[in-house]
Amino acid sequence: MRTGIAWDRIEQFVGYGRVDAPVVFLGMEEGQSSSASLESDLVYRSQFEPIIDLQTAHRGIDGTGKFFDPVGGSTQRTWRPMCELMIRRQDAGGRPNRQSRLRYQALQLGRSHGDSLLTELLPYPKRTAEAWPEIYGQRFRTRALYEQHMLPYRIELLSRLLAGYRRELVICYGKANWSSYKQLANVAFGVGVEQWPAVPSDGALTVVAGGVRIVLTKHFSARDFNTDEQLRKFVNVALHERGELTGAN
Questions:
Q1: How far apart are the first and last CA of the chain?
Q2: pLDDT at 2 over 80
Q3: Does residue 241 register a pLDDT over 90?
Q4: How far is residue 110's CA from residue 14's CA, in Å, rounded to a whole number?
Q5: Which pLDDT belongs to residue 107?
Q6: What are phi and psi for residue 171, nearest 5 degrees?
Q7: Measured in whole angstroms, how far is the alpha carbon of residue 159 from the centre of its chain?
Q8: Mean pLDDT (the chain, rounded)
Q9: Average confidence (pLDDT) over 22-45
Q10: 123-132: b (≥16 Cβ within 10 Å) or e
Q11: Number of domains in the chain
């Protein structure tokens, strides 16, 4: 194993799953499992290829093994709506439950053989949006400098990747970051700001560009995704019939 943190490699990391996956989930930044193990996690992540299998990657991340047990494991809150959507995409008439979501999470979500790609707009894992662990000061003195430098770079990087393959659905979650997601949609798919609906419908903004459905929604850890009924409502919006570019849901 290499020693030390390869910051360039971490900043070029895209995410988990299949490079040409039809469904892409895009958040703002990955959660951090443990403050105590952050440095060792970063050293481990420094070995990643730009896109890697979700389970393979997490074998070396502290405290994550419980998410890959299909029977007795634990639900990862942010992945729960993703699993709901992917199961319903496979079976439109299905009604996923905790056990079926847990099984999908353990065996199919973000896997190299699956239909999804999980990525983040910013590359450094953190426990909260406001946190700036001391170790990140090795690269950027403040979070503001980090965002100022990394956002344009990552938008360009991810836009090339998204546009480079045929996509069916791009889900961007985290309402505080909708403006950044709109920038990415513009670069990747040519979606102008004026083409987004002025008002969210069912908590989401949606456009369709060149057959790709792009959905901006709240963060998947929000209480809007607590119940099975709320999950079904979200999936109904996300899987709406695709067509030509439109400003309506």
A1: 49
A2: no
A3: no
A4: 12
A5: 97
A6: -105, 120
A7: 14
A8: 92
A9: 89
A10: bbbbeeeeeb
A11: 1
Using alpha carbons, select from 149, 161, 160, 106 the residue that is nearest to residue 124: 149
State the DSSP H helix or E strand holding residue 207, giving kind and residue range, or none if neither: strand 205-209
Please give the backbone phi and psi of residue 18, each rounded to the nearest 5 degrees, phi first: -115, 130
Judge whether 127 lies within some domain.
Answer: yes
36 against 248, higher pLDDT: 36
Question: What CATH number is given to the structural domain containing 226?
Answer: 3.40.470
| CA–CA separation, 18 and 23 (whole Å) | 10
Domain hosting residue 160, numbered range: 7-238
In a domain, 1, yes or no: no
Asked, for residue 246, whether it belongs to a domain, the answer is: no
Residue carrying structure tokens 């069916």: 168
How does residue 37 score in pLDDT terms, banded at 50, 70 and 90? confident
Residues 235 and 241: their CA atoms lie apart, in Å, by 12
The whole-number pLDDT of residue 3 equals: 53
In a domain, 244, yes or no: no
**201, 246 Cβ separation under 8 angstroms:** no
